[in-house]
């Protein structure tokens, strides 16, 4: 667990801070400026709560029931009922990092002073994060409009001391027990607080920020894998020259091509066929066009990062408190469309990068296309199958990723008696993107595994210093070199973890410096 707390105030949470809290368990505290903003907004809510004029979410029902005026003595029950009824998720538990991420982002909005919660309510959420208390949130329940209602309601339920949570050790227990064990007291929600705790796009945004971080690392690793494939298949590095990329000035393409050039530098394998005797005119698209595909993916990720940055700087709630004007106004900022679109876009590029990776891998296995390597890179073809079925595994994953690339954000099912008649399905887009990121990790890992075997089979030709470092990493992790068939699944899983952890990328960067 990170020792220094992340301070949440009136400014946006950074992606780095979100990752520290969500993935590394960093504690959280409210910054001094948050207390002042929260108090000012709360004063506005309490004034409206005592007024005779109805105010949505404060003295009325919700959604299609907003026309009912709720008397003062029933408003605490109104907030409890809202949270309990909306904590209606179903299915498997959502990952701990996702729940911690959405809690941090909801806290960030609470701290802006636009929601009207009390300071003690915001403070309890910060304390739960610091103590590692994670509410149980279920897979299904959010339509990505009016925010991630059901997931956030499960978190709000835990603040009330109800529902289930997992403590810092991962033990499942009632929320009341976990809070008591940490010395924390549940809150009794006051006017507007229940609504403020559940009306945000925090779940889908948190998953977007994490996916962007993962994809940035994976796309650099995909450049490494592509370079290993170009090298192992006796391809040329000339097509990656900077002057050729400048003719089509997409920034991601130039960065990817530069990475390929650097990774292939000083390769004995590439040098062996660089002379005038080489009769290869052009490499296949999956080799030659790697920068165009990887680069287009990079540019898409950076577009998504711009959207995420705007969303991180937002205060998403409805109604929203305008403390400086002393009023509360309804709005539509909870609609998840901007986030949902880029979540879907990233699933598309993840699928395509996986697709070209699988095609590069397949070329290693076909004796008609692998330029002198044994069929399927097998030790004794016919007796041994080599990496034949590793490519099947890649193909199965890529096929699923293509299905996952079908956008969720084009769908909408009306809800709340047609009051909420158009929704974003952004939560669903985020959930499938997480599966796509995992799939890309696995596909790239199998390419790295296969290319490393091919480079060993090219000896005594020496790979580049960078690709040679990857081969050594695999061997040091227990993945043996070429030889008779052996149980392949554990080797694939080891390679997957080396890619997922960033170890493959680190091995390269320790030799040639940081990749772009």
Automatic annotation (TrEMBL):
Keyword Lyase (UniProt): yes
Signal peptide: none
SUPFAM superfamilies, alphabetized: L-aspartase-like (SSF48557)
Compartments, as annotated in UniProt: Cytoplasm
InterPro entries reported for this sequence: Aromatic_Lyase (IPR001106), Fumarase/histidase_N (IPR024083), HutH (IPR005921), L-Aspartase-like (IPR008948), Phe/His_NH3-lyase_AS (IPR022313)
Pathway the protein acts in: Amino-acid degradation; L-histidine degradation into L-glutamate; N-formimidoyl-L-glutamate from L-histidine: step 1/3
Predominant subcellular localization, coarse grouping: cytoplasm
Reactions mediated catalytically: L-histidine = trans-urocanate + NH4(+)
Protein name stated in the entry: Histidine ammonia-lyase
Gene from which this protein is expressed: hutH
């Amino acid at each position: 667990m990170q020792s220094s707390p992340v301070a949440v105030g009136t400014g946006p949470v950074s992606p780095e801070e979100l990752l520290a809290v969500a993935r590394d368990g960093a504690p959280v505290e409210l910054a001094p400026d948050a207390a002042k903003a929260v108090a000012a907004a709360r004063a506005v809510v309490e004034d409206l709560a005592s007024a005779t004029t109805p105010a949505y979410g404060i003295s009325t029902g919700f959604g299609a029931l907003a026309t009912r005026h709720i008397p003062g003595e029933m408003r605490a029950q109104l907030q409890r009922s809202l949270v309990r009824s909306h904590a209606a998720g179903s299915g498997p538990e959502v990952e701990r990092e996702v729940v911690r991420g959405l809690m941090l982002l909801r806290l960030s909005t609470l701290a802006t002073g636009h929601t009207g919660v009390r300071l003690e309510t915001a403070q309890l959420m910060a304390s739960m994060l610091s103590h590692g208390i994670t509410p149980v949130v279920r897979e299904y329940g959010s339509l990505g409009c009016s925010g991630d209602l059901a997931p956030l309601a499960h978190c709000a339920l835990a603040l009330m001391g109800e529902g289930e949570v997992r403590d810092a050790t991962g033990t499942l227990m009632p929320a009341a027990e976990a809070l008591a064990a940490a010395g924390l007291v549940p809150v009794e929600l006051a006017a507007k607080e229940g609504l403020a705790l559940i009306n945000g796009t925090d779940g889908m945004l948190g998953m977007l920020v994490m996916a962007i971080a993962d994809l940035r690392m994976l796309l650099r690793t995909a450049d490494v894998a592509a370079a290993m494939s170009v090298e192992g298949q006796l391809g040329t590095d000339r097509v990656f020259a900077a002057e050729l990329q400048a003719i089509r000035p997409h920034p991601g393409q130039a960065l990817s091509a530069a990475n390929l050039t650097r990774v292939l530098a000083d390769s004995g394998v590439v040098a062996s066929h660089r002379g005038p005797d080489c009769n290869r005119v052009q490499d296949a698209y999956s080799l030659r066009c790697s920068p165009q595909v990887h680069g287009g993916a990079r540019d898409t990720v950076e577009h998504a990062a711009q959207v995420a940055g705007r969303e991180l700087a937002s205060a998403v709630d409805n109604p929203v408190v305008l403390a400086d004007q002393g009023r509360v106004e309804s709005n539509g900022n909870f609609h998840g469309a901007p986030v949902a679109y880029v979540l879907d876009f990233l699933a598309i590029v993840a699928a395509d990068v996986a697709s070209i990776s699988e095609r590069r891998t397949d070329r290693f296995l076909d004796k008609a296309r692998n330029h002198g390597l044994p069929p399927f890179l097998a030790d004794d073809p016919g007796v041994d199958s080599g990496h034949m079925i590793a490519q099947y595994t890649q193909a199965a994953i890529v096929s699923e990723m293509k299905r996952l690339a079908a956008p969720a954000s084009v769908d909408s099912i009306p809800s709340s008696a047609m009051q909420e008649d158009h929704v974003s399905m952004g939560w669903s887009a985020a959930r499938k993107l997480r599966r796509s990121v995992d799939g890309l990790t696995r596909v790239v890992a199998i390419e790295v595994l296969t290319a490393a075997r091919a480079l060993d089979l090219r000896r005594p030709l020496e790979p580049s210093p960078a690709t040679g470092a990857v081969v050594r990493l695999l061997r040091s992790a227990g993945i043996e070199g070429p030889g008779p068939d052996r149980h392949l699944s554990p080797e694939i899983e080891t390679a997957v973890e080396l890619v997922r952890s960033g170890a493959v990328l680190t091995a390269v960067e320790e030799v040639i410096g940081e990749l772009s």
